[in-house]
Predict the 3D structure of the following.
Amino acid sequence: MKSVIALIAVGCLCAGCSTREDLDARGVIRLGVQNATRASIDNVSDLAQYAGDKVGIFGMETDSQTPAAGVWNGSLLMDNVKTSGIDADGTIHWAGTYYYPMEPEHFVKFCAYHPYAASGTSGDNFVAMPTAGQAPVLHFVLGGQEDVMYAGPVVGSCNVKPDKLTFKHVLTQLTFELEDPDGEFTGATLEGITFQEVNTRSSMDIETGRLGAWSEPKSFDF
């Protein structure tokens, strides 16, 4: 008898937007995504279906094509922009139009994360805005079925096309299968699994995927 159940595994875990209509079309910011890593969401098709409208994007202006990690002292051209969908070819969509700086030596560093949360300072699920030495941080509370992912950074400009975003899991759903080689459970039904004292509240640096401290342990029934 085989029973399959999807559940969450606690793992280790880019100011002011420009919409300048006078810019040439080449200055419009466009992003794409390639395969994600692991488990229930591990390809573009899955991303499009399950995460297409639940991704947040930050884009920070920088004067370097290879900006240092953790440096967030530039203007935010995309300020926690929520996606509206992802196409089968990986093209990402959002409301409105955003533009690169007109100067070719100015670049934009992009980072993305899932699941999307509004910017804020408190609550169960929110994104703390970046500071000079800290990337945006996703604060979240697990409900038992989330895929928590980050992607970035990639860098682009009006003359440089950014690489496609690659999403990496820090928390992912797993599939469990009960094996019964001796037939001892023939005809039986697995009604659920309980995980006891699972930590549910934490945070994630959206540039590196680094997790913060965990708290609020509780039991999950599946």
User: Anything to note?
Assistant: The chain is about 5% helix and 40% strand.
